[in-house]
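Quick illustration, no need to memorize.
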Amino acid sequence: MCSDLRAICIELIKEANLNGCRKEIASKDCGLCIKTIERWEKNLIDLRNGPKTIPANKLSEFERQKIIKIATSEKYRDKSPWEIVPMLADSEGIFIGSESSFYRVLKKEKLLAHRGKSKGRTMDRPAPLIAKGPNEIWSWDITYMKGPIRGQFYYLYLFMDIFSRKIVGHEVFELESMELSAEIVDKICKMEKIKKGQIILHSDNGGPMKGATMLATLQELGVMPSFSRPSVSDDNPFSEALFKTTKYCPEYPANGFNSLDEARDWCKVFVDWYNNKHLHSGIKFVTPTSRHEGLDKKVLQLRKEVYIKAKLLNPSRWSKNTRNWDWIDEVFLNHPKRKDDVEIKKVS
């Protein structure tokens, strides 16, 4: 940029600054960094020397165009530069540039991704699921718990009902294993008296969740598996939120557990508190057990009557309606943005 244009930019930025605009914002609007403007204010002449010679190993424009032509040809458009370069040497006996040179040219031309007919990797959002009662959809995952030695962990297996938020089963082990996962699922299904085809079990894509033993057990029990997209924690929000509640609990030991038995004892106390005493915000501040057993309707109705009575006694304290204590009749797993966008699987 010549000195005259720099001077014009400085004047415009000064004018904007005098009218109340921050110099940094005005510089950004001009497509310039504030440091650049400050440097220009000291000296309008560009004192940077820069490279005065062209690198001897720089690709010529002819070579660049040849790389683009080869990479986009029918023969090579589905190949990576790591394949193209040796293939050119083997089949045609030529070497135009290294693999990194191919990558630089293709990156600049925005040709790195899917030059041919192949489509990019897509991870479709799992189909939304609706639970209208307890024991219809469960969510589960495994989280690490610090052990007595750095790098040693215990593994907490947590299974919860997304409708009631009740922890229906948990175990702590010294390892992650699909065999252990299968044993726990079998135990919980018997304890909750789950019938075949009654429940969907949602999890992420870990080995203990998708292992052959685990899937075989689910098939035998008549439990339908559901999985998140790889590396997308939002697809399993209930378990992730439960883990946060667990580890942000004030009684959770920051320095970890001294033994497996200590970890198991702590989890038993936590699960009892969570299920029977904790007023869960996601289910209108009732306990998960009361909702799981159908007792929350009465609790919410009585609470609603108390609020209505209080409003009648002191109407000036309410500018609008009382708080909504209506019973939640549906719980979504992976709620769609619009109901019309996808076919919602309803659990009946």
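Strands lie at 129-131, 137-146, 153-161, 167-173, 200-203, 224-227, 331-333, 345-346.
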